[in-house]
Every structure is written in C-alpha cells, then in structure tokens.
Amino acid sequence: IETYLLGTMASYTNIDGAQTNEKTGVPVYGIDKELQAKAAAKWESEGKQMEKDAKTWISAVLTTQNQTFECPGTLQEALKDGVVLCNLVNIIKPGCCKNPSAMAAPFKQMENIGKYLEACTKIGVDSHTSFQTVSLYEDQDMLAVLRQIHALGSKAQQIGYEGPTLGAKLAEETPREFSAETLAAGATSVGLLGKGSHGYATQAGMFDTSRNIDKGVGVGVATAEISKMGLGSSECAKLDTKSISNEIVKAPH
User: Fold this and answer.
1) Whole-angstrom Cα distance, residue 129 to residue 149?
2) Residue 139 in contact with residue 23, Cβ under 8 Å?
3) Which of 41-45, 67-71, 77-81, 99-103 has the lowest mean pLDDT?
4) Which residues have CB under 8 Å from 127's CB, separation 6+?
5) Judging by beta carbons within 10 Å of its beta carbon (0-12, 13-18, 19+), is residue 146 exposed, middle or buried?
6) Residues 47, 49, 54, CA angle at the centre, nearest 5°?
7) What's the CA gap between 181 and 135, in Å, rounded?
8) Rounded distance, CA 139 to CA 43, Å?
9) Among 19, 43, 197, 208, fewest CB within 10 Å belongs to which?
10) Other C-beta atoms within 10 Å of 220: how many?
11) Which of 16-20, 46-50, 215-219, 247-251 has the highest mean pLDDT?
C-alpha cells in the first residue's frame, strides 16, 4: 500500500505479510518488531545453551532424591506450574520453601512460582536476578528465568550443596581485621598521590636537552640550567635569578 504525504511517498506493510509475535500471533511493527528481533538473536546466542544446561542440572538434582523430571516439550512448559522449582530449591536447602500446591488453577501455579522466588531470596540468591511471575508463567521473558536458575546454581555451591553443579561458584568474603595501632598509623600517613612533586613524583628526566642549540645570538640560558628547570618544584630546581643571569651566553661582537 502506498500513499503520498507532504510530497513524499510512504509505504506501509500489508497486514497479511506483517511479522507476527511467535507466541500470540499478533502483528508487530516499529519498535516492537525491533525488540522481538533483538530478543530472538539473544536467545540464539545465549538462551538455547542456558536452557540446555539448566534442564540437565534440574534433572540431575531431582534424581538425587529419586524424583523424576519429565520435559518432553520446552523447559518453560515443564516449569510453569512452579512445582518442580519448589522441589528443586527444597533439595538444595531443605525446608526453605513452602510445599507447592498441586492444583491446576492458574493462580495456584503462580503462587508456587512466588514461593520459589521467596525461598531463593531467603537462601541468599541476589534479588536483582529475580524475575516476574508472568515471565515464566506466560513465557514473556524466559531468558530472565534461566539467568535466575543459573544464579541459584552458583549460590547452591556457595552455601555448601554438594550435589550436581551449575555455573561458577561465587567468591566468598574474606574480611580482614587490623589492630588499632595499624589503623592509626594508616590514618596519619600521606599516600603516594598526596605527596606530589615534593615526594616521589617529579618531572626529572621528562625533558630531553641533549639537542639544545646555542645559536650564539641574543640571550640564552646554559643547557645545564635548562635541565634543572625541567625538574619542577623539587629541591634540585630551586634556582634564583642571580644563578641564571650569571650564565648568560653573550654573542661575540
């Protein structure tokens, strides 16, 4: 379909050929189309492998307690009721999560997801890795769900879970304690940056005077004095007017 607007031709996509949302089937245009393309690219580069690793890990953890994990379709379909997730976190930290409901009602399944997220926060999983309930239940942002599951895998290793692992182990805090004398000495000492040109920081050696030319005309300053002036405000650069004037090079008559 083509039309003219203010002397320019604008073209519009026919609804029959428009790109649609893969989940809802609704046509997408403009920024929605761009965001969908970016999300698809992100899933291809990162999400698929994360989903595979998470699926393998969940199955291995549940197997340690003789629980089965059936996932014939997508991981989202297997996790959307929240039961598997609640059982997963309870194996990692027994008793941290309330028992999930087996009811098929949507609000009950979403409550199960909420119980899982609450338990994850309780055992120390960073809250910024959490996700919205609808991100899993309605499959709105499965990548955020996978990142949270991987964060749980890392936290599980840190809190002492000795079963199957997922992701890298988080670093442990190593606090240091100093005596009152050490703290007092540190408070009164001047750091390297605070010393400036009066301490260790000088301009010594920054000026190359090896090729200075004495033209023999007019007034000049001895090469030795030029090198001293390059030393900045250090002790070696304290030259008075008399010492410079005494070494003026006068041109021959």
Assistant:
1) 9
2) yes
3) 41-45
4) 121
5) buried
6) 90
7) 54
8) 13
9) 208
10) 18
11) 46-50
Structure tokens at 141: 């942002």
Give the list of residues 6+ apart from residue 135 with CB closer than 8 angstroms, or none.
Answer: 141, 142, 144, 145
Alpha helices (runs of H) in the chain, residue ranges in sequence order: 30-42, 48-63, 75-79, 83-92, 106-122, 133-137, 142-158, 180-188, 192-195, 223-229, 241-245
C-alpha 79/C-alpha 102 separation (Å) is 13
Cα-Cα-Cα-Cα torsion 193, 199, 200, 201, nearest 10 degrees, comes to 60
Do the strands 2-5 and 8-11 form a parallel or antiparallel pair, or are they unpaired? Answer: antiparallel
- Please list, in sequence order, all residues whose beta carbon lies within 8 angstroms of the beta carbon of residue 225, skipping any fewer than 6 positions away: 239, 243, 244, 247
Identify the three-state secondary structure at position 17.
helix
Q: 């910024």: which residue's tokens?
A: 128
Cβ density class 106-134: b for 16+ within 10 Å, e for less? eeebbbbbebbbebbeebebeeebbbebe
Residue 237 has pLDDT above 50, yes or no: no
pTM > 0.90: no
Q: How far is CA 94 from CA 88, 89, 141, 153, in A?
A: 10, 8, 28, 15
Indicate the residue type of 145. Answer: V
Residue 85's closest CA among 125, 120, 124? 120
- The pLDDT of residue 27 is above 70: yes
Stated length of the chain: 253
Q: pLDDT confidence of 47, banded at 50, 70, 90? A: confident
CA distances from 250 to 22, 197, 212 (A): 89, 34, 16
